[in-house]
Amino acid sequence: MCGIVxxxxxxxxxxxxxxxxxxxxxxxxDSAGVAVINDHQPxxxxxxxxxxLLDQEVTHNDEAMNAIIGIGHTRWATHGAPTTINAxxxxxxxxxxxxxxxxxxxxxxxxxxxxxNEGYKFISDTDTEVIPHxxxxxxxxxxxxxxxxxxxxxxxHGAYAIAALYTKTPDSIYVARLSSPLLIGIGNKENYVxxxxxxxxxxxxxxxxxxxxxxxxxxxxSVKIHNFKRKTEIIPKTEELDFDLEKAKLGNFPxxxxxxxxxxxxxxxxxxxxxxxxxxxxxxxxxxxxxxxxLKYIDRIVIxxxxxxxxxxxxxxxxxxxxxxxxxxxxxxxxxKYRSEPFSRSTALIAISQSGETADTIAAIKKVENYGVxxxxxxxxxxxxxxxxxxxxVYCHAGPELSVASTKAFIAQVTVLTEIALSLSNGNxxxxxxLVDELxxxxxxxxxxxxxxxxxxxxxxxxxxxxxxxxxxRGYAYPCALEGALKLKELTYIHAEGYAAGEMKxxxxxxxxxxxxxxxxxxxxxxxxxxLSNISEIKARGGxxxxxxxxxxxxxxxxxxxxxxxxxxxxxxxPLVVATALHxxxxxxxxxxxxxxxxxxxxxxxxxxx
Length: 610
Ligand code: M6R
Known about the structure:
Rossmann fold; seven-stranded antiparallel sheet; binds 5-amino-5-deoxy-1-O-phosphono-D-mannitol
């Protein structure tokens, strides 16, 4: 999704601005731009496509290179096609005000009509363009830019993170946020603003997270924040960024996706470190300590999440119900927020999110705020919005995930959900000891799946010619089937569906023929025989079958065309080994088709709009 970076300094800001935009590229974007002010003269340069192209154009502009203040943006189109005109920064007609914006201004049409009636002319299709014109409009009556900016903010509905420049105050960047992340970096004789820590981490680790309805004025010497709703000054609370640049480096891997899939064993270790100890009957989840008493009275859990995090939530449903005996309901955050369902104070909401910035998941948390519901988070990005608006939570500690497709985050989320289930069982489940022991040896089992990468690559070459796929499984394998299908479609653009194996006869079987392969997850479980019957039904209709089974299953070969073996593990930890194999399969299929695996078309890493 869109990204923002802004710098005010006493030396040239162009290179760090462009570097900041490059580090935001992983979020997904279609155009980029920067606006800088040099000697009161604005320079606004925009490009469709790669930041690299923008870099070439900006660095050939001597005026721009001398600027010591600037804002930049990577855009992921929502209103209007990806064109230079629609790219940010947007400006007023006299080119004195420049604005970059993340989010959506929901009432932009109404504002646009009002401004058009006042004689304002619009050139883009974007919602953002109303902002510089609106500030311009208020500048006619307000004494200062800050006052005009605040008046404009009062009129905007929706979600926004905004950074603005004004040529008549060329030492200041004006920023504001509502329901869209924005942080301020505190440097030495320079200050920064960014929508994502990765854009400024090279310069400072000292940051202030802006909260909703806060705006700030940044110069190279000061940061002044105030709440524009309550009209109060805010004393900035500086925090230290916990972001490991080393972990985000590619090393010898050809792309982030493969690196992140290969991070999976370490991901389980990091998500278990200090929490799970063999031989102990306590799971130590420091992030839940302050709600320990409240958790004793919880009799229902609702999990809300999107995409892969939602599928991790479905695995969590099976885990928590089986291990802790608590009823769990998993809901798509985008649906949850509009449902009218009853809540009691004995319900806990668990929001799961890698980025901690997904708009729908944030909205789900906000929805329950007035019900007295305990709000918990399972989040990877430290300091993100969800980690800050929940009452308590457990971090995934998977390190930065840069590839748009979420892989290691799923592994971390499922590991954390296993720990939460064990913790809620208070050590009373017969599965407690076996699971704790299994978690400690699981990373090695995942390593052995990664060792099969070459075989899976061969398989992918054979299957990449097909246009449709179905993934199926029962029990814990069912959410894995959904995850396998999502990963395949998102990375390869092949049509793929995930199904509960028992549902095949209720409709999907009609699609099966020699051109429609089925990927069956049939790892050892109490239901393996039933899944085998489903395999036979597919075979009888001529459908090609790839089966993912536990090591030692010799009979499966006679039923299927191809087999992937994964190490034996408990049924409850199977999703961790199965998902790694599915992630590798989707990866190699995408590579066989020549796809951009880190940045699939049309997608963004962090979905910060509805
Ligand atoms: O950051 P989140 O975990 O909240 O993101 C949720 C989904 O947008 C994300 O999992 C998405 O489905 C991935 N592209 C899947 O690989």
